[in-house]
Amino acid sequence: MFTTSGFDRIGEENAFAVLARAEALKAAGLDVINLGIGQPDFRTPEHIVEAAVKALRDGHHGYTPAPGIAPLREAVAADISRRHGVEADPGLVLIVPGGKVTMFMAILMFGEPGAEILYPDPGFPIYRSMIDFTGARPIGIPLREQRGFAVAAEDVAGLLTDRTRLIILNSPGNPTGGVTPRPEIDALVGVLAERPDIAILSDEIYDQFLFDGCEHVTLLGYPEIRDRLILLNGWSKTYAMTGWRLGYAIWPEGLFDKARKLAVNCYSCVNAPAQWAGIAALEGPQDAVLAMVGEFDRRRSLIVDGLNAIDGLSCAAPHGAFYAFANITRTGWRAKALASTLLEETGVATIGGPDFGDAGEGFIRFSYASSRENIAAALTRLGRFLDSRLQTATSA
Ligand code: PLP
Known about the structure:
By secondary structure, the chain is α/β, with parallel strands linked by helices. The chain is 42% helix and 14% strand.
């Protein structure tokens, strides 16, 4: 009846469908443990909430400049310099309603029929969905379990063509927790330095979620690619602020104004009190962030050990983010079927690997952003479920 453009190709994020199903089962009386959705189960720290309340009381009720309020853009630049030792121009900081918006803008800017865009597979599903939407050709960069799901520079080199317009990178990564180490990033930058016609979107939203002494290597630290690097980051994960819808990007000078115009066309500016809260987050005490990451580390050990103790499952310890990407191939199940049966029969919500790309078959993602009690209970249910199915299969 209607003619629309590209909407037969746009995808979505199955984590939200799983969340809706989990909520429905809970409402129907099932005891649900949600290890599906990727959001910290902590409250936003109190001083950040207070800053938003104060902003409302102080009368920050109107539009702000489209790129964000000046003190927030300056706070972002100062935070980058403090944490990474790299200079960022506050004039190139664009405040956005959530990190996702930056990938939307970048992919819209470079995607069109005939163009190729490289994205991590398995990876955050919106990359692929938006690439498809623009009509560009999606080219998956394979992330392999044997390499800890890190990007391999030689894989990228082999995938570049004269049609490549944009490459998307994400370390620490969702859904794998993989962290690409510095030597590999050096090699990758070496490859990309040869191709000044390709833009780079570096999604570093999990940059503070690192374990086992791993370091975060920001692509902002490589001057040879700064003129085409789009950095994606935000407050959602680090400060447990997923519902506030607050993120930022650092755009290269040649692209900033295009992104600003997209902002003006789409949402005008970000919610004003949330922006004031963002300043409090960056400039205030960071102990809540450290405590949260410490707790995630303890949960990580619990879930990885627990998964490895279950017959048919294996899980290499992820070095970053808050996801365990477990190999389920020895169970004989297809990943999506296992994830949905687990939810319906045991109340444990997880996400099947194929929801993150074709290379995700054989894996299930567990978000360990849930209490240790919940994780322990989920592991018990999972073990019992697989055990009972194994017994049924053996006795049949
Ligand atoms: N990038 C990655 C890799 C993510 O996992 C997520 C959220 O899950 C986002 C970006 C989006 O973050 P936000 O909620 O700030 O839009």
